[in-house]
Amino acid sequence: MTDPDALLRILLLRDTNLVALAGARIYIATDPPAGYEPNLNAAKPTTTGPAVLMTNRGGPPNVTSMLLNLTYQGRCYAATEPVARDLDGRLFTALHDKRYGRIRVARCNVTGQHTQSPETGWHFSLSTWQLTVVIA
Question: Exposed, middle or buried, 101 (CB in 10 Å: 0-12/13-18/19+)?
Answer without folding.
Answer: middle
